[in-house]
Every structure is written in C-alpha cells, then in structure tokens.
Amino acid sequence: MGSEGPPAAITTVHVTGFKKFHGVSENPTETIVNNLAEYMKKKGLPKGLVLGSCNILETAGQEALVPLYQTLQSAITARDSDSQSSSSNKIIWLHLGVNSGATRFAIEKQAVNEATFRCPDEMGWKPQRVPIIPSDGPISHIRTTSLPVEDITKALAKKGYDVMTSDDAGRFVCNYVYYHSLRFAEQNETKSLFVHVPLFFTINEETQMHFVASLLEVLSSIC
C-alpha cells in the first residue's frame, strides 16, 4: 500500500446571529442561523468545509461577554481535543448582524475599540465613548480581519448579490462583538468575519439564506 499523504485541510465555520433588540422586533440573523444547518444539509456543503456551531447571541455588550467567550472558546476546545486535527485546518467565526437601514449586504473589514450605544442594549447598558478593551488603548484603535474582504465581496458580487465592503460596523453591539472576536481570533490563531444583512422586508429570507450559503462557498475557496 502506498502512502496516502497528509489529510486534506478542513475549514470549520462557526456562525452566530443575534436576538431581537430595540427597534427590530424580528432579527433576520436569528432566523438565518437557526435554519442554516438544515438548509446546508439539503443544499450540500462545499468541499473541505464543515459547518460548526450555530449560535444566537444576546443583543448586548458587557453583560453578554461571558456567554460570548464561552461560545468562542468552544471551537478552540473542540479543535484542541481532536487528535486527528491537522495543523493546516482553519477555524472561521462568521458573525451575522442586521442593519435595519441597509439595502444591501455588507462585508465588514474592521471593528473599532469604541462602544457608543445609540440606545440601551437588551441588558440595559448604554455606554458612551467607552473603550471596548481598555488595554488596547484609545477608542480610535482598530482591529482588522485577516480574511481577504475585497476578494470575498468581489466573488459574491460575481454571483449576482448586491454586496459591498464596509469599514464601519457602527458603534453598537455588532461592532462590540466583532472587536472581541477579532482579538480572540488573533490570540487563538483563528479568523473572524462580520457581515451585516438587511431586514427581510428589504431582501427576502430565501435570498438571504442563499447569500449565506454562497458566502460559505466563497470562504471555502478563498480561505
């Protein structure tokens, strides 16, 4: 018997969405993430890609940090406990959030170290010009994803989606979670990406499900 060579590299994508919050009674990302595993089972996953956990996060900052880090850590624990895991295998955290005023999808390039909430989060916290990670320095400090955002956006646009690259994830919970996730990714040699989606009223559920499936396909081919 000849040598079979090293196992093919696997990319595991873990996905999060958010619950409803002030002004958004139905968060499309909660629906997308809750239905994604079943949707991808029917559609079929791209070669070399595994859909990991699908979690719904509280739309909250400081008070929701413990469950957020438990969620992020779960992927590392699973990776480190798998004796068959190849060092070339990748973990990507894909965070989905809604921008209720958007008319297109937005691939977020970065997050900024500033929490300035326009309204209280679901736990009642309303910070103003507070650093998300004080040890990172000023509120102007930026963390950037290591994923090729421009290439991802171009690939999705080629598939016919109305999608843009964004360098402003806001200053609310989406930016707050993304900043923590980018820091965690840097510390644990994983990758993180945040994508803003519109309301279902603007782009319907079926199109948005198809978009996320296409995004997974792009991530498997580019990353």
From TrEMBL:
One of its GO terms (molecular function) is pyroglutamyl-peptidase activity. It comes from the Eukaryota. The keyword Cytoplasm applies. Keywords: Cytoplasm, Hydrolase, Protease, Thiol protease. SUPFAM superfamilies: Pyrrolidone carboxyl peptidase (pyroglutamate aminopeptidase) (SSF53182). PANTHER family: PROTEASE FAMILY C15 PYROGLUTAMYL-PEPTIDASE I-RELATED, PYROGLUTAMYL-PEPTIDASE I. This is Pyrrolidone-carboxylate peptidase. It comes from Arachis hypogaea.
